[in-house]
Structures are given as C-alpha cells and as structure tokens.
Amino acid sequence: MSMDNFERLCKGLCDLAGVTAPDLAPGDDGALAIEIGLKGVLVVLSYDGHRNPDRVVFAVTFGPLPDGRELDACRVLMTINTHVLASGSTFGRDPATGDVMLAQSLAFGQATAVDVYQRIDKLVDTANSWRQHHFLAQAGQGIAEEALQA
Predict the structure, then answer these.
(1) How far is CA 132 from CA 29, 37, 123, in A?
(2) In the chain, at which end, N or C, are there fewer CB atoms within 10 A of the end residue's CB?
(3) How far apart are CA 10 and CA 31, in angstroms?
(4) Phi and psi dihedrals of 63, rounded to 5?
(5) Would the pTM of this model clear 0.90, i.e. be above it?
(6) pLDDT, tens only, 18-56
(7) Could you give the percent of the chain with pLDDT greater than 90?
(8) Taking the chain, what is the end-to-end CA distance rounded to the nearest angstrom?
(9) Which residue has the higher pLDDT, 55 or 99?
(10) How far apart are CA 73 and CA 126, in angstroms?
(11) Where are the beta strands (DSSP E) in 12-150?
C-alpha cells in the first residue's frame, strides 16, 4: 500500500466516525499516523511503508491500570493476549504514558475503511467497559472474551 492509499483509508475512517481527518505527518520513526478521539477514547492509526509496507496498525487506548491492582490487571490482559485475541492483536502499554493499549495489525487487503471503523468502534466500546472493571471480575473477563474475539 502506498501513502496515498493510507491517506484514503484515514479519510474514509474519519468520515465514518464523523470527525475531521487530521493531517498526516510522519512521526520521529518515519511512520505516518493520525490520532482521533471516539467516544472519549484515543485511537491511533499508523502506517510504516519501510518496515511493514503491506500492513496498517491501529491502537485503541484503554487507559491507566487500576491503582493497587496493576499486577492483577496485567495478568488478565496477558491471559487474554495468549488465549483470546486473534493473531495480529496485542495488549501492551504506551511507553510514554503507561496506558494500556490494544494494537491490531491488518493486511491492506483486509483494511477497508468500513472494516477498520467497525473493528475500532467495537474496541472503543470495549475500552470504555474496561475502564469500569478492568476485566478483573468474572463478568468482566466474559465481556472481554466476547468483545475481543473478532
């Protein structure tokens, strides 16, 4: 995929989300990225034509780990990484803020604006739910499995 295709994908995604498409600008690492807010959740869509020319990556910010339960929450997220998430998806932490993020990588053949928007919208709802219980209760883990098995 070229930068032009990534730009069209970003514009289509932003149109579907009802937000103004921000200008694409390369980051310090040379990757192109946009940041948008959906339902109070930060989403980053990025493309690195040098490292992964056939893939687009999006990351949904879930937020900070719960005070006093950080290790418990990390254990649940690592279990989800291992047993629930589809290939190409991973929970991690933003190195700058420490916030939990879910990153997903898609081949450009799978990355239509509609498909990416639907995936992101579902994950934004899951992120907002996670902020309430951090998947720590049994019900929370069930919600995580249902929401993340796409």
Answers:
(1) 34, 19, 14
(2) C
(3) 14
(4) 120, -175
(5) no
(6) 999 998 878 778 889 999 999 999 999 999 988 888 889
(7) 55
(8) 24
(9) 99
(10) 15
(11) 25-26, 32-38, 41-47, 55-63, 89-93, 100-107
Residue 84's pLDDT band (boundaries 50, 70, 90)? confident
Contact (Cβ atoms closer than 8 angstroms) between residue 24 and residue 41: no
On whether the CB atoms of residues 58 and 122 are closer than 8 A, the answer is no
- Order of all β-strands in the sheet with 55-63: 25-26, 32-38, 41-47, 55-63, 100-107, 89-93
Three-state DSSP class for 60? strand
Please, what is the Cα angle at 32 between 30 and 37, to 5 degrees? Answer: 135
Contact, 78 vs 120, CB < 8 A? no
User: Could you tell me the two tokens for 12?
Assistant: 């289509």
Is 52 exposed, middle or buried, given 0-12, 13-18 or 19+ CB atoms closer than 10 A? middle
**Model pLDDT, residue 1:** 52
Residue 100 CB partners (closer than 8 Å, separation 6+): 61, 62, 63, 64, 65, 73, 77, 91, 92, 93, 94, 130
Distance (Å, whole) CA 101 – CA 121: 15
